[in-house]
Request: fold
Amino acid sequence: MNTSALVNSSLRFVLLLLVQVFIFNQVAWGWGQGDLLFVFVYPLFVAMLPLRLPRPAVILLGFLLGLSVDFFSETIGLHAGALTLTAYLRPFILRLIQPRDGYNIKANPSIYDMGGGWMFRYLALLLLAHLVMFFLLQTFSIYFLSDIVLKTVFSLPASLVVTFAIVLIFNPKA
Amino acid sequence: MGRLLRILLHSSGFFTFAVLQLLCLYLIVHHNDTQRKIWAETKFVYGSYFTKQVSDRLAFLDVARENEILRRENAALLSRIPGSGYNTSVDTSTVVDSLMQQRFTYLASRVVSKSPYGPYNTLVIDRGSNLGVERGQGVVADGGLLGIVSEVTPRHARVISLLHLDTRVSAGLDNNAFGTLRWDGHDPRRVTLTDMPDYVPVAPNDTIFTTGYSNVYPTGLPIGIVESSEPMPGTGSQHLTVVLLNDPLLAATGYVVRDLFKEELERLNQVK
Reply:
């Protein structure tokens, strides 16, 4: 991890935490008995960690960010659990959408290095994993499967649009 | 150990994930009300089922203790069935006759234990010294002889069966010729009458009676029927093969014969 990546990642950690807690946690939309639409932007931090970072470090950082979000949301463990799983699944997702000639040794998971289409698929898969796990932990029972599916169906496009917009606007190189 | 370490390092991502995920689950259950309730409910629903499954699988580990408990319970139950009671009612036949003084009395008894069939058969009856059973008394059964009392406890007595290699009974014909009855240990239906003088005429189907000379049995109790006679060259005696009237192996009841004159007769025998 070179210096720029380190600085960028640290900045993203703080900024995404603040944005999630103070802006997007206030966004919740639904009808009937509960909210169905949530917007999660902080998985972007895990998504944009350098590819060469060791897996335990990725998982640990994901856990720390999730726990930080939890502290502000009064849902200790929920975001942490979801983001830990997301961080664990990141290598599998990366392998799933691997370009034909593999990853460049210096490549970063960014539009600049990998292109917009790849980035969109990457974020979609990561967010899918994150949202399913989060709603599973939130309802805490398979019994609410329809609830989980509904929430994921509503939240995935919204979160994807927002995160992809953030990536497009800032377009970081590392 | 190095191999294990390599595996750990190789899957360090998974272990980090597993540890942190478990930590998250712990935090979720302990800091969120909804999830705590669901967890408690789940634990209640599946925990008992799981516990039951486990205890079913592991039930055999406890089988020794269970067995001990059941055996105690069995013993307690068995002691309550009628057959386990000791019959305290006394059936003694005594005839009061002004002309004939009673010499022998008969005490009814049940056979409660038998040794496995072999050359030295014994059995146990449920009458003992409490009711006057003594060592050396005879036991008769089913119209024949059963054995001789050898050991006595207050409530029980051990009887050496007629089918015992050490049993000797004085027996004879009705013409007062007598010998010693013994068992050769081969055929439980036949015994041998030895030391019978060879000049005494014996015919098959003659009846063998007790003589009463040994003060064990009354005189004239039928024992069996002569099957064949075999003179023993040079000894002046003949051996009679006797078919028993009863089957001592199958006896379930017996009558202990008590000789009321026994002490008096023994006093006579003490004088040399």
User: Anything to note?
Assistant: The domain at 3-170 of chain A is CATH 1.10.1760 (Arp2/3 complex 21 kDa subunit ARPC3). Chain A touches chain B at residues 54-56, 58-60, 63, 66, 70, 75-78, 80-81, 84-85, 87-88, 91, 137, 140-141 (CB under 8 Å).
